[in-house]
Amino acid sequence: MKIGLLGYGTVGSAFYAMAIEHPETSDITLLDLKRHDDLTCRQTADFQDILRDESIGTVVELIGGLHPAYEFVSSALKSGKHVVTANKQLVSACYDELIALAEENSVSLRCTAAAGGGIPWLHSLARLAECDRITSVSGIMNGTTNYILSAMTEQGTEYADNLREAQRLGYAEADPTADVEGYDACRKLVLSANIAFGVSIREAEVPCFGISGITAQDIAAFKRLGLVCKLIAHADRAGDQVAACVEPMLFPVSGQMAHVNGPDNLISLHAERVGTQRFAGAGAGGFATASNVLADCFEIMRGCGAFYTSRRDAVSVNNAALTQRYYVRAGEEAASRTMTVAEAHAMADQFKKERKPFFMAAASEER
Ligand SMILES: NC(=O)c1ccc[n+]([C@@H]2O[C@H](COP(=O)([O-])OP(=O)(O)OC[C@H]3O[C@@H](n4cnc5c(N)ncnc54)[C@H](OP(=O)(O)O)[C@@H]3O)[C@@H](O)[C@H]2O)c1
User: Ligand 1 pocket: which of 30, 32, 146 to mutate (most atoms <8 Å of CB)?
Assistant: First the structure.
């Protein structure tokens, strides 16, 4: 398999190191903005060199972001090249379009590393969805927020101090918005729900409430109640509708969720016959993520379909039927309220619009 590797950052360089250890994946042409004199592979700064090279059968996109990743991936698929990517932002935003391109051009698109980093989560969802009915997916899908919440819980320190520390340690980006506001977890949830349920929900339909409003005072209140706060992405299938959102949730300190600390992920599925399955491990990191990228390349070599699933049922996201108990703090005033997920997120949106201090977290049974 000749590979066109796009990007030589954290994941791209780890992928390169792993791929050259295998004769089947060692023939690599690298596209990167700068030249790497220590590498023996062909290198170019022009994507057209990769596109025009008919001997390159697979493009591995590890640049990230929407542009130019979208242009590179879509033109690779149109040119009859398989694509492997870790880019949740791209696949979540252009889900239907990219899968349709893979189908029309009889090539494969795989993105296992896009949710769960090194955990073979999407791959496992696809396998199980073929033989059982998956009814829910949920869990800690973002390591940055889990690191911040864990540190706040352990040390009783403020959000801003722990965000700075996460940035210093490389767990959070200079612009942490996608992580702390829940958008990164939302993209992973969209991919998970779509593959698990055979549907096509969109990022914009899924309400996200992140952790940027949490204070040490909230954490202290949770501790007094024997609870630990985690940012959770969850989606449940009910008939022809899907309930889905990203929000902080409170778990008993004695439960499994409370003990997932630092940047780790813990993701679960529930299926009618198989019951509950949990997947835990490194949700990010160069080598962990690259291992899923390489495994996708091997799967393509063995011959696999266009995407994990051919089903993309159009369903709507409806959070009006799911009622939960919420911890709600507006300003200094904290209270407990029972609301539907739709009501809770509408309230959060209103406070955000008015730029008033607000935090909420749903009470949860261990999911
Ligand atoms: N890091 C993780 O743990 C992790 C986990 C799961 C998924 N992912 C996903 O994996 C992808 C890559 O992430 P990463 O952490 O490896 O990012 P990264 O370290 O920022 O690497 C991106 C690389 O792409 C290069 N690049 C940017 N624009 C380019 C262009 N137009 N043409 C060619 N190369 C270009 C960058 O070059 P410069 O450095 O010169 O800008 C850099 O080498 C993202 O989609 C991310 O969401 C990452």
Answer: 32
What is the tens place of the pLDDT at every residue in 314-359? 999 999 999 999 999 999 999 999 999 999 999 999 999 999 999 9
Q: Is residue 42 part of a domain?
A: yes
pLDDT for the residue numbered 239? 84
Q: How many domains does one find in the chain?
A: 2
Per-residue pLDDT tens digits for 264-281: 999 999 999 999 999 999
pLDDT (0 to 100) of residue 240: 86
Same domain, residue pair 261 and 194:
yes
Nearest Cα residue to atom 37 of ligand 1? 33
Nearest-angstrom CA–CA distance, 347 and 340: 11
CA dihedral 70, 72, 75, 79 (to 10 degrees): -140
| Residue 142 belongs to domain with CATH number | 3.30.360.10
Of all protein residues, the one whose alpha carbon is nearest to atom 19 of ligand 1 is 9
Does residue 68 have a cis peptide bond before it, meaning omega lies within 30 degrees of 0? yes
Do 133 and 89 share a structural domain?
no
Q: Which domain holds residue 275?
A: 121-282+315-363
